[in-house]
Prior knowledge:
Structural class of chain B: alpha+beta
Strand order of the largest sheet of chain B: 1-2-3
Largest sheet of chain B: 3 strands, antiparallel
Bound molecules: iron/sulfur cluster
Distance between the termini of chain A: 31 Å
Number of domains of chain B: 1
Number of helices of chain B: 14
Number of domains of chain A: 2
Oligomer: heterodimer
CATH class of chain B: Mainly Alpha
Helix content of chain B: 40-55%
Amino acid sequence: MGLIKKLPVYTEHIPGGSLVTTSVNSVLTMAQAKSLWYLLFGTACCAIELMATGASRYDFDRLGMIFRASPRQADIMLVAGTITKKMAPRVKRIYDQMAQPRYVLAMGGCAIGGGPFYYDCYSVLKGVDKIIPVDVFVPGCPPRPEALLQGCLEVGKKIRTLKLDEWS
Amino acid sequence: MAEELRTEDMTMNMGPQHPSTHGVCRLVLTLDGEVIKDCQPVIGFLHRSIEKMCENRTYAQCIPLMDRFEYCTSMSCNWAFCLAAEKLSDIKVPERGEYLRVIMGELNRIASHLIFVGVTPMDCGALTPFLYTFRERERIMDLFEMTCGQRLTYNYIRIGGVAKDIPPEFIPKCREFLDIFEEKIRDYEKLLVDNPIWIARNKGVGIITPQLVYDYCISGPSARASGVNFDIRKNDPYSIYDRFDFDIPLGTGGDCYDRFNVRVNEMRQSARIVAQALDHLPDGEIRVKVPLKFKPNPGEVYSRRENSRGEMGVYLVSDGSTKPFRIRARGGSFSHLQAVPHIVKGLKIADLVAIFASMDIIMPEIDR
Ligand code: SF4
């Protein structure tokens, strides 16, 4: 019942149970926000923190996040690490391969804007938002697992404000 | 009349986005069915021009960049760079500083091997060890965090010593970790070493002969698994490693199974070194004063140290100014990746995954 309380519902009690009336939109967005499968896609140091977040102490799974190796099965792409100019077309391609609705979380300074490789560096893309739309940015070098967890919760919050026809 | 079956070679890409390529490595495979006929690694997907950037930074500013050179063992990279700079200008690190370096370096080696022990089975399809090893790794991360405030990129080892002294609660926490650690290693061994599936996947697969070790300049645990007894900590001791009593685990077969076991046993030895260093930790200064605009003597130097993946060397050219003239960092993975095409010819794709994982190749070390 805890779940039902979070939805905008109209409940009517009938003998032997109750009837619930709610909108498709709220059920679907909640389902999606609670089961974000992420693409296992790490390029650099932040990927180790991503792994640590998925492991025992921080435990991504309790947010309903399970890693997927194939972009076609993933809902969210966690861009963890430096994206170089050579890698950028591949990132775009992986993003295009993901099924809609899809979300992107940029993790770490490098994915946000080049991070430590902003100055004097000829080969690093200065921010992954130059090639794909990013929903949530999590700063840090690398961000702590707690920060990453909060970033994922923020993505969930964003999803729950969406309307069905905005899903694209 | 039976017509002859016609077969064709297939060219297939593995990576750059592939969970078992440990970063972003692309392998172009030429396949005959499932048998690999040729394997061509394509590198450069993580080229961050760290060496070039160092030329525009002062020596103190180079150290954080060296963290990112090889992030599983950031302490080692800091250390290798500082060793080179100290060698150039004849700086003597105080005793306590040396001991702290050894403690941190060996803890970092354990942390790096724990990633290996967790991730390698994952590539072969066993997810469980990953959860166990990262549980212990978090304890080491706690120790690092209470010392230098970072979990992954430490910037702790500085020219002339270390950045900060350890807090008082470090030593009891560290001892507590060492006490439980031996038992945990036995747990990992129970999960994998005697596991028939693991043996079937790894034993006799991807054999590296001692000759291949010399030919491709393979170093570190991957070389020792083939029976080549070479460890820079013993053969060319730097810092204070000659004071500690530890063994070098050696393998015999040079296959994936041995490479795994050597690393597991190396964790035991590292734990031994840390325990000895904690026992003998002296009081006193942790760092000699080095000016912020540090200027080493002009000249060039190569210094090397044993990293968890192999020889980690830094070649440093100084022109006597505040910025290095040229830095060239050498990581073990580069030579290891070169050997992979040689090893995998004639094997199956599933073996390639096991071999690639067992060499503990990490891409930033290659692309820099
Ligand atoms: S933000 Fe920092 S830790 Fe993350 S990938 Fe970039 S350099 Fe590495």
